[in-house]
Amino acid sequence: MPELAYVNGTITPIEEARVPIDDRGYQFGDAVYEYIASYTGRLFAIEEHLDRLENSLRALAYPPIPREEVRDAIMSIFQKAGIEQAGIYLQISRGVAPRNHAYSRQLQPQIIITVRQLPEIPQAHVTQGIHAITVPDIRWGRCDIKTVQLLPNTLAKQQAIEAGAQDAIFISPDGIVREATSANLFIRSGDHLLTHPLTPNILPGITRAVLIGICQELGIDVREQFFDRDALLAADEVFLTGTVTEVLSVCRVDDRVIADGQPGARAKKLRGMFEARAGKHP
Description:
By secondary structure, this protein is of the alpha+beta class. The protein folds into two domains: 4-117, Aminotransferase class 4, branched-chain amino acid transferase, N-terminal domain (D-amino Acid Aminotransferase, Chain A, domain 1, 2-Layer Sandwich); 123-278, D-amino Acid Aminotransferase, Chain A, domain 2. It contains eight helices and 15 strands. Strands 7, 8, 9, 10, 11, 12, 13, 14 and 15 form a nine-stranded mixed β-sheet that branches. A six-stranded antiparallel β-sheet has the order 2-1-6-5-3-4. The two termini are 19 Å apart.
């Protein structure tokens, strides 16, 4: 099936899509985005993604964009692409104008969408877990807004890859564990799970919220509280959650093996529950 792009209402093959050189998303990182997964031909948690998108648009004082317009654009390109397990990238920039830090309130937001095959998590990462490194958190102060300003994330991810790891975990200046480069983070300590509270310092992850809901249904104690690197390294389990990540165990952090070095039973169970909730398998 074709991989397609949508640019302000026009759908083309991705390689033929063009955006203006003066788009503020390109020149200033003045854009927000969402990434939505589909499983067996069904978009997962689309309304939750649209809720977060609207929060991001409001936080940056973008002009109102009708929710139905965005949903219809997503559905039109998704249906035309016909990719059952797809990754839908949606980006909305403030608009197009000659380069200037200040902007006109009259700018027309630009809507760009791409549909590609959803990346598969390597099976070895699922069965054996991954290795992550810790890095100082140098991101801006509003990580709760899902903007395209991801340079610190990409640099941290590249640092991890070059160190032979698969991801990086951000640590605040005062030693608090925050999240990974594109995923939220949980640890298991005894019978309960810990994850960073929702503050401007982390993204309010959709998968994070789904997983907390599953835990509540199962009677698993989840505590949204701060914890430090020592607690991370001493955890019985560490795992990441995200749209592409789903639920993925971290079995080594820096040079420290987590517990017995294998994906834990809690993460395995939650991954299975998430896959069922998302309808990943027919």
